[in-house]
Amino acid sequence: TSILQFEIFNLHFALAAAMRFLPVVIFLAFCLIPAAKSFGLEQVLRVSDGKTVAFDQMIEDIKGAELVFVGEVHSNLKHHKAQLKIIKALNESKIPMAIGVEMFRAGSQKELDQWVDGTMSLGVFVGVYNANWGMPWPWYMNIFKYARQFDIPVIGLNLPSELTEKVARHGFEALTGDELKQLPPQLDFDIDDGYRAHVRKAFEAHGENDKSFDNFCKAQMIWDKTMAYYLMTFLKKNPGKTVVVLAGADHSAGKGIPNQIKKQSQYRYKVILPQQPGRFESTTTTTADADYLMPE
């Protein structure tokens, strides 16, 4: 028994030691990802004609848009490298810009402003980030540091996750009056067949008439409409800005947030998505999904 206890103690000690160094490992993994050249971001696929074009050619094309959606798989660090490369290219082209992020709730806008204007310390901001988003800070660190360095406004787009989770599980009718006040005004559910198909592809939902799938569609639409609402609100107050939107690939795809923008405004937008096997592939993606595909 004593030998077993000793082994268990050693195991606990080893795990504790490993956890102490986990943030360092994550940080190093992020920093050691090769530069953009190694994953081919010097070239992208133009969806309209299926041609491979230079990264700089894509940048020239998207300069005229008021919204540039750059989708991501949250855990793919190459996607965050690509997002930062696009942000840098637009900023270095002297395009007045802002960055809209799914990673922060709209209710944290004050803290985002304080971070960008330099009145909030790194330690405090990381705490705010962790309260908003579940992915490790080092994965997004360079993007937020760049925004602060160049005084680029960052816009929180998200809503409390407990609201969408509640709708997905129990339906929109389950929301309380106080919860409804946290949603955009005059919210409706214009869920068509295209949107349902979009959600099905992304989330492998259930049967066509399954009530749980209907609820899930409504939860996703609340998400998309909310982020669209905050983007349009910002653009109305800041005409002439180009907003680079960082969000999950399914939110960023044409039938997600962009479609809500299209239905409610005349803002011009471009969509850049990462290639994903079984989801956004060069042979199946259309201009209804994206304008450009980045290498996987």
Helix content range: 40-55%
| N-to-C SSE string, H for helix and E for strand | HEEHEHEHHHEHHHHEHHEE
Largest beta-sheet characterization: 8 strands, mixed
- Helix count equals 12
Instruction: Note the beta-strand portion.
Output: 5-15%
Task: Using the alpha-carbon principal axes, give the shape.
Answer: globular
Amino-to-carboxy terminus distance:
51 Å
Number of strands: 8
Class from helix and strand fractions: alpha/beta
The residue ranges in which pLDDT falls below 50 over 5 or more consecutive positions are 1-39, 205-209
| Oligomer description | single chain
- Side by side, the strands of the main sheet go 2-1-8-7-3-6-4-5
Radius of gyration: 21 Å
Mean pLDDT: 87
How would you briefly describe this protein structure?
With 296 residues, this protein is α/β, with parallel strands linked by helices. It has twelve helices and eight strands.
List keywords for this structure.
12 helices; alpha/beta; disordered N terminus; 296 residues; 51% helix; eight-stranded mixed sheet
Protein described:
With 296 residues, the protein is an alpha/beta fold. The protein is 51% helix and 15% strand. It has 12 helices and 8 strands. It has helices at 2-31, 55-62, 77-92, 109-116, 122-132, 137-149, 161-170, 177-180, 193-203, 211-237, 249-252, 257-264, and strands at 43-46, 51-54, 67-72, 97-105, 154-158, 242-248, 269-274, 292-294. An 8-stranded mixed β-sheet has the order 2-1-8-7-3-6-4-5, with helices on both faces. Helix 3 runs parallel beside helix 6 and helix 7 (161-170) packs antiparallel against helix 10 (211-237). The radius of gyration is 21 Å and the shape is globular. The N and C termini lie far apart (51 Å).
